[in-house]
Amino acid sequence: MAGAAELDPAATIQFVINAAAGSSDADTKRDVIESVLRAQGRCGDLHFCTPVQLTGLARESAQRALLTRAAVVAVGGDGTLNTVAQAAHAVGCAMGVVPQGTFNYFARTHGIPADPAEAVRLLLHARPVPVQVAGINERVFLVNASLGLYPDLLEDREAYKARFGRSRWVAFVAACSTLLRAQRRLRLHIETGGTVRDVQTLTLFVGNNRLQLQQFGAEPEDTLAGTPGDGSMAALVLRPIGTLSMMGLMLHGAMGRLGEAAGVERFEFEHLLVKPTLPQGRRGVKVAFDGEVTMMRAPLDFRVLAKPLYLLRPQPKAQAQAAAIGAASPTEEAGG
């Protein structure tokens, strides 16, 4: 493919790891990655950092990967993947993923396993494949972006995780808490595909990942060429509803039937311009993308980006080889 990222199998892979060097978490990740690299006869630079250092390190590592025809590999959760993807997409180098989040929709969509040793083994045999990324203003996102209720939900979820630990049940309880006290309404002017309208909503959720939408039970009708994450994106608009209806919404979401809930509108698009009505003197709006929350200036421009991300995606043959290696070396897994 013209313009595809070049990759030298002998080049030193750049690993960006969101964990403070010297911590027990960092030591575990180092042991796993270095063990696999030694077994495969490959070289890698392991760069550990704190969240504050992540953006700068991702840019430096992506630039180094481009110059040496290597790949930059994100090791961490959704926020880490997003930051490294932003850097890799900007320079055009190949990117690998070793996922360590709760849901891992991006990794699962592309066949990347949750087990870190297996994920590293597979990316050593993978080739860069162009995959769709989305943009909101100047930011890249891989899975989703939203405003309104959903950013509040993410902030509550992080607070619950800090108190009760990381699990899907903790995330679900946090979501219930957020939804039951949801009151704030957004007034949005939306332009897409030649259509202009004004809506009131509790949240606008934009999905770039078909797997996540499927698990929500909220896939839109196929009205555009391609599907969310492969040619188009999907928008979900949640109309203002009462407490009883909100409880019904939570039940539908838990059952993977969100699309059947009253007050949920779904549609596909390639480009969406959103102009929120903001209080006088305020220009920014709280936005969430790939699990991170920040303030962005309005209007918000969502679009499928023409330039892809070159992802090291496992091939079926490599997956079978990695499975055989893992079965033959059980002590290596235990030692990670």
From TrEMBL:
MF term (GO), any: kinase activity
Transferase recorded as keyword: yes
Keywords in alphabetical order: Kinase, Transferase
Pfam hit, one: DAGK_cat
Gene3D superfamilies per UniProt: 2.60.200.40, Probable inorganic polyphosphate/atp-NAD kinase, domain 1 (3.40.50.10330)
Name of the protein in question: Diacylglycerol kinase family protein
Taxonomic source organism: Roseateles albus
PROSITE patterns tied to this protein: DAGK
Ion transport found in the keyword field: no
Taxonomy of the source species: Bacteria, Pseudomonadati, Pseudomonadota, Betaproteobacteria, Burkholderiales
Domain DAGKc: 56-139
